[in-house]
Amino acid sequence: MSSDPLALDTSRIPSRPSPEPRPFFRTPVSETPLVKAALIATGLAFIVLMIFLPLAAVFFEAFRRGVEPFFASLVEPDALSAVRLTLLVAAISVPANLVFGLVASWAIAKFEFKGKSFLVTLIDLPFSVSPVIAGLVYILLFGSYGFVGPWLIANGYQIVFAVPGIVLATIFVTFPFVARQLIPLMEQQGKGDEEAALSLGASGLQTFFRVTLPNIKWALLYGVLLCNARAMGEFGAVSVVSGHIRGKTNTMPLHVEILYNEYNFVAAFAVASLLAFLALVTLVLKSVLEWRYGGELAASGRH
Amino acid sequence: MPRAGGTNATRADERHRPSPVRIDVEELGKSYGSFAALDNVSLTVKPGELLALLGPSGSGKTTLLRAIAGLTATEEGTIRFDGEDATVLSLRERRVGFVFQQYALFRHMTVFDNVAFGLRVRPREERPRAGEIARRVRRLLELVQLGGLEKRFPSQISGGQRQRVALARALAIEPRVLLLDEPFGALDAKVRKELRSWLRELHTETGLTTVFVTHDQEEALELADRVVIMRAGRVEQIGTPSEIYDEPATPFVCEFLGGVARFEVTAKEGEADVLGSLFPVEGDGDYHGPALAYVRAHEIEIVARERAEGVPAVIRAVRPFGPTVTVELSIEGRASRIEAEVPRELYSGGELGIGQGVFIRATSARIYAAN
Hints:
heterodimer; A: mainly alpha; 74% helix; B: alpha+beta
């Protein structure tokens, strides 16, 4: 060792003082283990009691008498008709709200005009109004004693207690979902990209399909999913306007209620479990999207 | 760092390069409610010129640039490209290359697709074939020193690179004029400096009439052929960098260029006393009354006590970096400090101690009548 002049003579370096036992340190925003455990336990208990158990109960009740009664109550004509109606209502109201939501958020996020904040409030209205009132509004408008109802009925258009009324009520209730997703994102993105595209010679349509739409596609899909989930599950507003005509104006949630009131628990829970299953599929898709689109948002934030 | 690529391809194109466009802005007016963003603005951008619009925020410089591009509608006045009224042309028809402050790159497209965008959206009969588009995009990316980054997304490249992608994208449409909004605003100091000289070279290379907006006086004076200084929607002064620097037309220009000490003085017979010496009032040899005097830091001289010229001052701070040493001084009856730039020798000679009393005088001053 001494032959190498560059080598360190370790004997002359004072040995590091033996580390004193450091007092337990935690970051200022953390809690003691006891408090942590208590908080986590409370949270878990709440989730299990309020969300997991009810969900499990739905599936448990549905299969209580076995697999056969479960499927029998799903293929029974009234149930099938309810499924069909639910899908039909969703198939009309979701695209309608996709277009309305897109147009509304485009206007709100990219332009300045009088009454803009009023429009934003209007879009939020369906969230704050009770769905029952939403249903009643359509009865007041289109019912046989309503404002335009008598004229429509005289001309052969049945709105209330028929499919059009259910679609209208569903559109009303699910109206904010797409717009609420898009407005903040589009406001954050601003008009810069569109201006750039236009200055490069793109037409309005080219700008929309090549620049605007790709920028918002994940948020749009996310909004559509939420909208769809609500459209299929809506009870209150639909219940008021539907008239509960079996095999004709019953959607799945209404069908569940009727079956339950008739003490047909297996059938009620079987249909309910189908609804719950659809909701779960939506949730999984939503999580996948969040994962995807969360990254995209972060990337645009860095931008 | 980047030097404008002098590739054979670009030289070959110079042969059939269209002659640069002249821009005339005539009595342009634009207001937002009661706020006049542009107030009777007239100026001419000479063909092939690199012009800077300089001013504080809210001075209307960006509004003017956007009006020239057709991004902002104006209420009064005309903009002409080579004599042709451009105000009636749409954004598309004006064919203006615009580089946005935050670049506005399309985040879902690669660098290549971003640059190709302007070519791909052309109507079918004017659109080049895919191979031709690829060739042009490659050449442009080489011109802006970004060859090899075609497949990256905007989020995967640095700020300076994004800036150059935005430039290449704007140049792809073969614009008649090139407009840049705060081209270096979002970059750090070092990259700014590098891109500055690079932009100058690129301008020589493309020969396009170019207008850029900046709030950085150093950037404008260093880069531009001529500088337009704007204030509250009006043009305050137009001139070459040396004209602006040597003969600032108004007190505002003086203060905006910065590095000056301002004195409120009283003029008699067209002259006023600034730090113990008499200087003439600009443009009025007979002026009596209140005036504003501006002295640049390097025009203030620190003199030894024995000579007793000028006015007494006390050294408050010394900033000994850069080619000269900046000395902060206070004089009696003045709240704000005066900065003087003195040769390094004076500092290394040990003559500048904090708290030391000295005498200062002005070697030059610009005086403007206050009313």
